[in-house]
Amino acid sequence: MQWYVVASLLTLLTSSQGILTTLSQTHGRYNYDYATIPFLAEIFKLLVSTIFLWRECKKSPPPRMTTEWKTVRLYPIPSIIYLIHNNVQFATLTFVDTSTYQIMGNLKIVTTGILFRLFLKRKLSNLQWMAIVLLAVGTTTSQVKGCGEASCDSLFSSPIQGYMLGVLSACLSALAGVYTEFLMKKNNDTLYWQNVQLYTFGAIFNMGRLFLDDFRGGFENGPWWDRLFNGYTITTWLVVLNLGSTGLLVSWLMKYADNIVKVYSTSMAMLLTMVLSVFLFTFKPTLQLLLGIIICIMSLQMYFAPPSTLVDLPVSVPASQSAPVKTDS
Questions:
Q1: Cα distance between residue 111 and residue 80, in whole Å
Q2: What is the pLDDT of residues 89-127, one digit of tens each?
Q3: Which UniProt keywords apply (predicted)?
C-alpha cells in the first residue's frame, strides 16, 4: 500500500475522531468513563496485530521477530513518555486557557522536525524546513480567533510557567513520535510483532491509569472493570474503533514512511474537522480558517513536490551550442 493512501485514511479517521467524540455525548456530558476509551482502543489494536501476526507465522518462512530482552525493554518507553505528556498537559492548563494551549500545541510541528533531524539523522532541505514552519503558521492562523467563540486576548498574558510547560508538552509529544519511529525502523522485525509489543505495554499503562483513578476516588464507584462498558452506545464503540484504527495506521506510517507524513496528516485532519464542524455543529467559518487552509496546502505542496515543480530553473544549454563559432577572416 502506498504511503499517501495510508496518510489520506489517517486524515479522514483523525478528522472524524473529534466529531464522533462530540456525538457520543448526551446533553453535553459523557455517560461513560472516558478513561476506558484509550484502554479498549489499545486492546483492539493488540487483538488486530496478534491476528495478523498469527497469520504471518503460518507462512513459510516465518516472519522475523526479535525476542531479546535488550530490544523488548525499549517498547515501554513511548508509553512512559505519553504518560508524562498527559500529566504535563494538565499542568499546562492550570496556567493557560484552552485557546492558548491549542495554539501552543502547534509547536510540536516544528519540534518534530528538529528531533527528526537530531535523533534520526534525517536531513531536510531548506525548502522542507520552510514548509514545516509554514505548516505551523497555517494551523495556528486557523485557530487564532479563540478556537471557537472564545477570545485570544489572553494569549500573551499567561504566566511564564504556562509557556514553559507548553513548550515541554510539544517537545514530549514530538519525542514520543520520533522515538516510536526509531523503534519501528530499528530492525527488520515484522510490523505486527512490533505492534504487539507496543500495544501490550500500552494496555498495561492504560490499565494502571484506571486503577489510579479508582484509588484517587476511594473506589467510590467500585473497581473499573465493573463499570467498563457502562453508558456505552454504538457511537461510543465507533470512537473506540476509530481511535484503534488510527493507531494502527500511525504505526504503519512510522514503519514505512516517517513522522513528517504523520504530522501533515494530523494537521490536515484538524483543518478538515473544523470545516466539517461548520456543517454538523454551530461552528462559524472565519477568515482565519480560510487563510490557514490555504497556507497549509501551500506547505504540503512545498514539502512533498519535487523542487523542479516549485522553481523555474534555467534551461541548461549544451556547451557545443553555447560556444561562439569561429569564422575565418
A1: 19
A2: 878 888 887 777 878 889 999 999 999 999 898 889 999
A3: Membrane, Signal, Transmembrane, Transmembrane helix
What grid cell was written down for 177?
A: 513520535
Residues 169 and 273: their CA atoms lie apart, in Å, by 23
Are the C-beta atoms of residues 264 and 135 closer than 8 Å to each other? yes
Q: Is 224 left (phi over 0), alpha (psi -120 to 50) or beta?
A: alpha
What domain count does the chain have? 1
For 49-96, write each residue's pLDDT tens digit.
999 999 999 988 889 999 999 999 999 999 899 889 988 987 888 888
Residue 325 is assigned to a structural domain of this protein: no
Report the 3 state secondary structure along the chain: CCHHHHHHHHHHHHHHHHHHHHHCCECCECCCCCCHHHHHHHHHHHHHHHHHHHHHHCCCCCCCCCCCHHHHCCCHHHHHHHHHHHHHHHHHCCCCCHHHHHHHCCHHHHHHHHHHHHHCCCCCCHHHHHHHHHHHHHHHHHHCCCCCCCCCCCCCCCCHHHHHHHHHHHHHHHHHHHHHHHHHCCCCCCHHHHHHHHHHHHHHHHHHHHHHHHHHCCCCCCCHHHHCCCCCCHHHHHHHHHHHHHHHHHHHHHHHCCHHHHHHHHHHHHHHHHHHHHHHCCCCCCHHHHHHHHHHHHHHHHHHCCHHHHCCCCCCCCHHHHCCCCCCC
Q: Is residue 327 part of a domain?
A: no
- For residue 137, the enclosing domain spans 3-22+33-306
The residue written with cell numbers 522515538 in the block is 179
Residue 315 located in a structural domain: no
Where b means 16+ CB within 10 Å and e means fewer, 85-96 reads beebbeebbebb
pTM higher than the cut 0.85: yes
Distance CA 48, CA 245 (A): 9
